[in-house]
Amino acid sequence: xxxxxxxxxxxxxxxxxxxxxxxxxxxxxxxxxxxxxxxxxxxxxxxxxxxxxxxxxxxxxxxxxxxxxxxxxxxxxxxxxxxxxxxxxxxxxxxxxxxxxxxxxxxxxxxxxxxxxxxxxxxxxxxxxxxxxxxxxxxxxxxxxxxxxxxxxxxxxxxxxxxxxxxxxxxxxxxxxxxxxxxxxxxxxxxxxxxxxxxxxxxxxxxxxxxxxxxxxxxxxxxxxxxxxxxxxxxxxxxxxxxxxxxxxxxxxxxxxxxxxxxxxxxxxxxxxxxxxxxxxxxxxxxxxxxxxxxxxxxxxxxxxxxxxxxxxxxxxxxxxxxxxxxxxxxxxxxxxxxxxxxxxxxxxxxxxxxxxxxxxxxxxxxxxxxxxxxxxxxxxxxxxxxxxxxxxxxxxxxxxxxxxxxxxxxxxxxxxxxxxxxxxxxxxxxxxxxxxxxxxxxxxxxxxxxxxxxxxxxxxxxxxxxxxx
Length: 470
What we know:
The protein is mainly beta.
């Protein structure tokens, strides 16, 4: 019993001393472990160094939009001078990774332009049920092989891919764009002979010194599989519904300062928000034999024409003041576009309208917010943005105002066609959480007896976009 009491007393004295030592202001306390750094990506390393990995990204862009309608616009049968709609411009899942020293796998799944009228039977569907739940699809599915380990000299890939010619905006990284939306005219065959600008291709790309290059041979889709009724053969060129030829394309960039990332197949960053010093000159092309057709001297004569598109451009994206975080981003490009005789196509991004009572020269999709976006002729496109210093909003993020202009001179349109946007990005957490307010001003047209389009006035739209990206 005495031994037990002695042991208890010893323990009690030890605990008391320990408590006294802990409470003493001169006692050393055990340092708390530093909090773990917050992760900004979903990445699984396949080796210890992390050079082999697989990662996933998620993107969602939600639009709230007010639009002044083109004349004659109807929405589900009702005339509408203006519209308000809510939609998902893009919802995407990317999965990609460096599987070993030589192999990259890249997949992207998602949907685009999902608003209230998704699946609406706008053409030739009398008595045919529609389905709003068929929008998501694979955008990319490509495998790529790096020929020399740790050297970007040559990468060979194949699959469904956006690796493209013509320009950097023909293969944009939509999560990092400067303006609210990309200049879609640069995705020259979008949803005509491709799948939302993706094509079944085999390609070679890489970087050698300051040169960044990509060349591809693509197997275009027939225009009949686009999901809409193709235009009938007529005096003005449209994509041919007979014959099948491969498409050839390429893009060369000369990089004066920092090199742009070459890891992900195809996609090119919109703005680096001052994190890199970039100045590039670029030139690109797309060519396809007998891609278009039209009638000749008589309605029974068929004339085939080649698709020939090329562009030259300059891209600037660099810090202005590293201490404050200010930066500038700018692009200026000239596009020479030969789609054949008098080719012209209207397009309205996530069009909020379903029909029109004022058809324009046999062209489709002229309602809502549409304008002549694609055509034989030329386009000058420019954009500029300025990232204001961090002292403007402090911890609340950063502001980046921008302006852009698309000035088209199309053979079938009288005079120049100018579409102008001004906007403001609130970069709450860089591109990961971004709120954009954008105003667009565009022309609307009527057809003259000659078939030429003549401007009649202008309309506008205001869009508030919220982007979440991880």
